[in-house]
Structure formats: structure tokens, C-alpha cells
Amino acid sequence: MAIRKIRLVPDDILRKKSRPVEVVDERVQELIEDMLEGMYKAEGIGMAAVQVGVLKRIVVMDISDERNQPIVMINPEVTHSEGSQVHREACLSIPDLSGTVERPALVVVKGLDRNGKPQELRCDGDLAVVMCHELDHLDGILYTDIATEFFGPDED
Ligand code: NI
């Protein structure tokens, strides 16, 4: 395992569209391990592969307090979304900033788990927010594109 450098704005790669994973092989699994390690080390709650410079449609997240419930989604697709919620978001690629964003209250996402097995996740609350944020990364979208209000590091 290795810690991969987290790409920061205005790195162009963050604006690129990631490509589907064709085979969930050892290299992909190693990338996922590195992403999780990097996310935990940076004290983040989610990360997309593009944030470590790899244009593959892979996202990882963990919103548990204990930091022991990782979720991995490969080639995620939203199959259902409903409602809305407004939440304050931040991003490992955009230091010292947070912003208010409106997202669906519930999303159902299907894709593959880290072993390449199909999985479907029903995400609500904070998990819906993080999932939508990470999915946007796969299409080169940053939360700052859709935020309505911004806060610096010292603002509540
Ligand atoms: Ni982000």
C-alpha cells in the first residue's frame, strides 16, 4: 500500500471525466486500498479516484464515527433519487473552504463492490450527501460549482 498524493484545485485532472473500470483486478484493489488509507489519513469522509490522479470510476467513503465502515463503489450509477437536503460540504481537494449545497435526501446507487460483485446501496442523510459529492467528482464536477454560500477556515 502507498499513500498517493491528493490532487488539489486548480489541478486540471479534477475537471476530467473518469472512465468505467472494465475489470476489477489486483491493481484496482490496490488502488482502492490506497484510496481508503489516504482518506483516513487525511481525515476525510469520502474520496474519488480522480483525487489521487486516477481517472477511474471508483469512490470510497466512510461516515462512521469509528472510521471502520468503509464503502467502496465501482462504476456507480444513480438509479433513484428523491427529496432534497441542504448540507455544508468540504472537499479534500479544496483546502480551507466549505460551502452550502443542496442534494437529494435519498439516492439509490448501484455498482460493483471491491470484489467486483454487484451491489446496490440506499443512501440517505449524510451518506446521500457524500455519495452525491463523490459521484460528481467522476464527472469533473466540484461542490464549489453548485454551492450557494462559502465559508473560510475560521468561519462557522
Ligand atoms: Ni471532494
Can you summarize this structure?
This protein is of the alpha+beta class and 156 residues long.
Any chance you could write out the topology, listing elements then pairs?
Blueprint: H1 26-41, E1 46-48, E2 58-61, E3 71-82, E4 85-91, E5 94-103, E6 106-112, E7 118-124, H2 125-137, E8 149-151
Antiparallel strand pairs: 1-2, 2-3, 3-6, 4-5, 5-8, 6-7
Can you characterise this structure?
This protein has two helices and eight strands, in the order αβββββββαβ. Helix content is 19%, strand content 34%. It is globular, with a radius of gyration of 15 Å. With 156 residues, it is an alpha+beta fold. The longest helix has 16 residues, at 26-41. Bound molecules: nickel (II) ion. The site of nickel (II) ion has 5 residues, from helix 2.
